Amino acid sequence: MIQTNFNQMILDYFKKHQEQSIPSLKVLEEFRGQMNKATIYRKLNALEEQKILRKNYNMEKKCYEYQYCPECKNHLHLICKSCGKILHLNCESAKTFVQHISLEHQFLLDQESTMILGICKECSSHA
Amino acid sequence: MIQTNFNQMILDYFKKHQEQSIPSLKVLEEFRGQMNKATIYRKLNALEEQKILRKNYNMEKKCYEYQYCPECKNHLHLICKSCGKILHLNCESAKTFVQHISLEHQFLLDQESTMILGICKECSSHA
DNA sequence: TTGCGTGCAAAGGTTTTGCATGGCA
DNA sequence: TGCCATGCAAAACCTTTGCACGCAA
Questions:
Q1: Would you state the CATH architecture of domain B76-126?
Q2: N or C: which end of chain B has fewer CB within 10 A?
Q3: What are phi and psi of B13, to 5 degrees?
Q4: pTM of structure
Q5: B4 touches strand D (CB under 7 A)
Q6: Nearest CA to B67 among B16, B6, B120?
Q7: CATH-assigned architecture of domain B4-68
């Protein structure tokens, strides 16, 4: 079990931004001067291996991004390509869709790692 | 307009594997001795910019992968995390789902870049 | 002493880029 | 000649790794 302050600091940071998927580069910047780069990467990897953070790749920023979401295994997510915000799909329609994929297409959908990309309401109204 | 043989060779290769998302490393290997690495990357990027190939990141292989799909803007895709096979979701349920996301969640879903991850029938029966 | 988290620097691996060359119009 | 695709090597970039140090049990 990991118990250092650094872990808590990083986790707190992600908890504060639960609705965001945060690029590694931003985490590095956030803790620059407080922790070494290697330490941050090691922490992020550890948290991901423990399934506390979820990791996916941000093609625009060309780096991984991480998200804290305690119950993400059981629902799908929308992620805004513009602002990085995450929406958790807990509705019936999503469940129906996942079930359909499973039953009709014989495809075991991985809700945790699937990221449904698009533009959120706020970002599309800005444009 | 790009008109070299190399372009055609690469495009033919992808057309032969339309149902697959192919990692850059595999493309490099395929054309090793025929084209330079830089040339291949340049071709892949050009084809992606022209929207002829679709690009996404493969976290397991730690490289980009590309797929030829002429009509992928208008439907969702399932991609098998195990074998890389792509399934094109042209069914009504998928359309309904996309519509639901738009209407109820005010989220403009990007069908082209969204990859629904999971395990396909064949791969799950192997396990 | 032992174990482990940490910093630092170097390495790793994919992808990009600078530059020179050669073909073709 | 001029343009552009190409090869080669180096650079760029994020990420990982090796190693040594220092703290705590």
A1: 2-Layer Sandwich (3.30)
A2: N
A3: -60, -45
A4: 0.82
A5: yes
A6: B16
A7: Orthogonal Bundle (1.10)
Per domain, the residue ranges of chain A are: 4-68, 76-126
What is the bridge-based pairing of β-strands B108-109 and A116-119? Answer: antiparallel
Is the minimum CB–CB distance between B38 and chain A shorter than 8 Å?
no
Identify from A58, A59, A62, A117 which residue to disrupt to test chain B contact, counting B C-beta atoms within 10 A and taking the largest count: A117
**Are B4-68 and B76-126 the same fold in CATH?**
no
User: What are the pLDDT digits (tens) for A57-114?
Assistant: 999 999 999 999 877 778 999 988 888 788 889 899 999 999 999 999 999 999 988 9
Separation of alpha carbons B13 and B24, rounded Å: 12
Can you give chain A as a three-state secondary structure string? CCCCHHHHHHHHHHHHCCCECEEHHHHHHHCECCECHHHHHHHHHHHHHCCCEEEEEECCCCEEEEEECCCHHHCEEEEECCCCEEEEECCHHHHHHHHHHHHHHCCEECCCCCEEEEECHHHHHHC
